[in-house]
Amino acid sequence: MCGIFAYTGTKDCREMLVNGLRMLEYRGYDSAGIMALSEESDIFLEKAVGRVSALASKVDEKKWDSIKYTTWIAHTRWATHGGVTVENTHPHISTNERFYVVHNGIIENYKELKKSLSEKYSFYSQTDTEVVAKLVESLYDGNLKSTMEKVVAKLVGAYSLAVVDSENPGEIVGIKLWSPLIVGKSNDWVYISSDINALSNLAESFSILEDNEMVVIENGDYSIFMSWKKVERDAEAVQEGQKIDELGDFTSYTEKEIFDIPAVLENVWSGRIDFKNKSIHNETLDALSDLDIERICIISSGSSYYAGEIWNYFFRKFSWIQASAIISSEFLSDVFIPDSKTLYIFLSQSGETADVRESMKIVKAKRCMTFWIVNVVGSTIARMADLGLYSHAWVEVGVASTKNVIAQIWVLLMMSISLWLKKDLQISDAREIISELSRLPDKISQALMQGPHIKKLAKKYSVYNDMFVLGRNYFYPVAGEASLKIKELSYIHSESYSAGELKHGPLALVSETFPTIVFNPMGKFYAKTISNIQEVSARKGPILGFISSNDTHKELYTDTIELPETSELLSVFTGLVSSYLFALYLAEALERDVDKPRNLAKSVTVE
Ligand code: F6R
User: Each residue of 337-346: pLDDT tens digit?
Assistant: First the structure.
């Protein structure tokens, strides 16, 4: 939710700025802006509504003369306070036009601050960030570092900020609380960024800032401070897995990431599962099994919530431990009754989702057992508790989560199998599941080979305005996740239901122009779902079935997508992956921007 990118260097490198901003664009793409400063304090400021490409064109059109700019701050915005306008686009400026600020997060007390500052300063935007720029001016004491200490003392909320004093070229001050900020370095370039993506192809090493830490870039180097004390911390080397891949022959990152799923699975289990001996080796999971766990509660949002629910169905089937999954914003809206025997698992691709982060704070404050499963290395949630596992899905660029959802379910399964094995319960089941899972990458590759068929069907179904997505048992949350992807990528209205629920009201909507998508591979609930399909068919509703190849009622479906022959457990994964392709191709048929669906952002750092 909003991306910050800033750097200083000896050369004028505006191309690097635009590229860096593009790498952060998935955090928000309502508008983008940059400010550049030369050694002689010449200022270049440009803002554009829309994508980074709109800003890039404006920057390209600009006549640059011979001025050499060496200090840059830039921002890509996901609108919270105030509409999508040039005025609301960052960087925001103090009234004396000396200080320039970019911000990610929300300043909760901005209205009160604005009211008191209004006596002296006039405001041009509706943003909370402009208040920070005015505060910097009003509290300026001759030193930007000490001024920023005073500024943040007045702020309530979450923020990562990068600030430039136009009278002091070469210096950038960054500071953060609850929103992420990273500083990177290569030769004589120093960068600040909201996440590793903008830096990974540029910097050789990086440091992740802790809350309340301030980073000061000056003289081609950086220092980190906490309450005026210099923090000594070794920088981490940028790893291969943190770099963004080239698109290759794929038309979007979303497509590439779906096709990456078999390889991601191998990465998730690499060094963790021994398929030969059907065992799991992982220190973190060993530590987990030493805990006295009687219940598990997963707290997450969006696709991560569905991943939790899907796992929950598996877990309930095999385990003696009670499990539940809850939407993080609902967790925050409810009364929390701490339970010392519950393991609270926080599931998040980005590791930055504010609702999940805030839920974790509440649980930690009550000293309950916490565990995270996160994809982005070093993200806020991953740094809030000692115990956790990375989902190892590599960088996910598409705003819609795909490969990471599969990786999350996998890590959860691995965790449950490890618990079952360590507690000497359900051993044969657990070992059976391990050997079954080893076949999964192949089965998913087979599902992906259906791409051309799924594409044809997606084109056919792209003419509809609405869809139901149904499933029972495991396939109920699978239907929820598939429906979310359809909405998010294609903007077609879709709703998911448990197949048995349709007759309790929603069936009223079914007609020749209102299709139903149903997940019904062979399994325990196959026959019951067939009855529900008949109810739709009797109302002339088109039906698209995700089914097994040996389905005995194929005539009931208008169209079918056959899943590779597998157990019911594995068909959850192949069903999900096939539905991702369907949603992607629906979106392509409707010419949507699949990597950056409208109104959304990848990292949701506001509640
Ligand atoms: C949907 C999607 C979102 C995220 C949700 C939580 O495709 O990507 O629903 O799953 O915003 O994000 P994380 O997992 O980063 O906490």
Answer: 999 999 999 9
Q: Cβ(353) to ligand 1 under 6 A?
A: yes
When pLDDT is cut at 50, 70 and 90, the band that residue 426 belongs to is low
Backbone angles phi, psi at 231, to 5 degrees: -95, 125
Atom of ligand 1 nearest to the CA of 399: 8
Amino acid 270 reads S
Q: Where, residue-wise, is CATH 3.40.50.10490 in the chain?
A: 248-438, 446-607
First to last CA, the chain: 11
Q: Which CATH number fits domain 248-438: 3.30.230.10, 3.40.50.620, 3.40.50.11810, 3.40.50.10490?
A: 3.40.50.10490
pLDDT surpassing 80 at residue 429 = no
Helix (H) or strand (E) holding 222: strand 221-226
Beta strands per DSSP E along 87-220: 92-93, 99-107, 157-165, 172-177, 182-186, 189-193, 205-208, 213-218
Q: CB-hemisphere CA count at 13 Å for 602? A: 29
297 is catalytic: no
Q: Which of 2, 134, 403, 443 is catalytic?
A: 2
CA 91 – CA 46 distance, rounded (Å): 9
Tell me, what amino acid is at 404?
N
| Beta carbons of 17 and 72 less than 8 angstroms apart | yes
Distance CA 327, CA 606 (A): 15
Dihedral (CA of 196, 201, 203, 205) sign: positive
Please tell me the distance from the alpha carbon of residue 290 to that of residue 423, in angstroms, as a whole number. Answer: 9
**Tell me: the pLDDT tens digits for 287-307?**
988 899 999 999 999 999 999
CATH class label, 3-242: alpha beta
446-607: CATH topology: Rossmann fold (3.40.50)
Atom of ligand 1 nearest to the CA of 300: 16
Assessment of whether the complete model's pTM goes beyond 0.70: yes
- Expressed in angstroms and rounded, the spacing between residue 353 Cα and the centre of ligand 1 is 8
Which part of the chain is CATH 3.60.20.10? 3-242
* Residue from 26, 197, 254, 303 to probe ligand 1 pocket by mutation (most atoms less than 8 Å from CB): 303
Is 356 touching ligand 1 by the criterion CB < 6 Å?
Answer: yes
Ligand 1: distance of its center to the CA of 76 in Å? 19
Of all protein residues, the one whose alpha carbon is nearest to atom 16 of ligand 1 is 348
Average pLDDT, the chain: 93
**φ, ψ (nearest 5 deg) of residue 35:** -135, 135
Active site residue 13: no
Helix (H) or strand (E) segment spanning residue 322: strand 322-327
